[in-house]
Design brief:
The chain has 200 residues and is mainly α. The protein is built from seven helices and two strands, in the order αββαααααα. 66% of the residues lie in helices and 2% in strands. Keywords: Signal.
């Protein structure tokens, strides 16, 4: 009987020696947007540091905050001046999507020691002139609806150019994600506005 126990114990010991924990899967180290992403062992992961933001990342965030703020200024006219309910709904949608985006970009600036940084905003595409904003504020009804859509389509197209540019020139993962959100959201809104404009 004792020999049988010894055999069983030996068998368990042999099985224990054959079963070992699986090797951890390799991790993907972050790299520049569009670049290759090398894999590293989990034991080496603590030494992987994402590259810091470059000038393209910082300029994009700084300019896009101002770009979004102008869009919000345009949407604030809509509740009192727009006639078309779909235009009012689009304006509200734009406001609800861009307000939190501004908050996220300002938080990114604080995390990267960029508080108070404004950059060069003179070259931003799609921005309405002060005369155009004045005319939009003075318009009512269908005139407002058409002017709002025309200006906002151009404004969104400018934002798409900025977001596409930073995806090629920037290297910060968070900025790339913010740019991707702008591209997805504003492409959809451009399509909606272009489909609505001929019906007014």
């Amino acid at each position: 009987m004792r020999s049988g126990v010894v055999v069983i114990a030996a068998a368990f010991a042999l099985l224990a020696g054959c079963t070992s924990a699986p090797e951890p899967a390799p991790l993907i180290a972050p790299d520049t947007p569009g670049g290759s992403a090398p894999t590293v062992a989990p034991s080496d992961a603590s030494g992987v540091v994402p590259p810091p933001p470059n000038d393209a990342d910082r300029d994009y965030v700084s300019m896009m905050i101002v770009h979004h703020e102008q869009a919000l200024a345009m949407t604030r006219f809509a509740p009192e001046r727009a006639q078309n309910e779909t235009v009012k709904g689009l304006a509200e949608r734009i406001r609800y999507s861009q307000e939190p985006e501004i908050g996220a970009m300002k938080q990114w600036q604080r995390a990267n020691n960029m508080v108070g940084s404004h950059g060069d905003h003179g070259s931003m595409p799609g921005m309405a002139t002060q005369d155009q904003l004045n005319a939009l504020g003075a318009a009512r009804g269908k005139d407002f609806d058409r002017m709002f859509l025309e200006l906002m389509i151009k404004h969104h197209e400018g934002a798409l150019k900025m977001a596409t540019d930073v995806r090629g020139a920037g290297r910060n993962v968070q900025v790339e994600e913010m740019a991707d959100d702008v591209i997805a959201t504003q492409t959809d809104e451009i399509n909606r506005m272009k489909a609505l404009l001929p019906t007014l």
